[in-house]
Amino acid sequence: MRVLVVTAVAAERDAVCAAAPSCDETTLPGGYPLRRVPGPPVALDVLAAGVGPAAAAAGTATALTAAALGGAPYDLVVSAGIGGGFPPGPDHGQPGAAPSGAPVGSVVVADAIVAADLGAETPDGFAPVTELGFGRVLHRPEEALVKAVAAAAGAATGPVVTVSTVTGSAARTAELAARHPGVLAEAMEGFGVAEAAAAHGVPVLELRTISNAVGPRDRGAWRIGAALAALTDAFRTLPGALTAATRAAGESHRP
User: Fold this and answer.
1) Among 29, 46, 65, 181, whose CB has the most other CB atoms within 10 angstroms?
2) What values do phi and psi take at 67, rounded to 5?
């Protein structure tokens, strides 16, 4: 199984590679350095594509195209890195549900990858592009993969929103939580990665480890080192989870 892992920055890429005993380097068209973790059973190619959804989509598309033209297309794309966790709060529209939230140090696997600020401001509030009659703002990863990867990594599952501007106020935190019930985390690349993967017909996942709480910015409370270490730990579990999920899927299709 060939998996492309896309991070924003080199520190996240290196944290993913730290889960493997060796990580070689090659260069993609456009000068993107690609780190390679050989399989079997799961071979990972790890790319630091840049910050934000546009850079993430461009880098992901470059890697997917190069792999397809080389005759070795990817089976899965994973958007990975650290992110902000939403504080616990009642799940909107879910009476009696347990509070959702992702504390610092925890791991999240997205069951919905959402473009949170792709749309327009209107007198009645924010309108996503889908309400304007075009585009899309949501990708849903395969449920079986989400469950398998989350179980192996000890992760929570829920929506992860992609933003172009990191949230820095309580008001914005509350607005996003109200618009996206059960949201666990925000980051800046997942939707861009998912768009590129969808264009190539490749399944996608998003995995985040939480370095800080979403809300008023308090750099003193951020735990980036701990989140990167958690990212390494999560990726140590990924090959086994993917292998088990693939085996289970194959068995379910047997006559």
Assistant:
1) 46
2) -65, -45
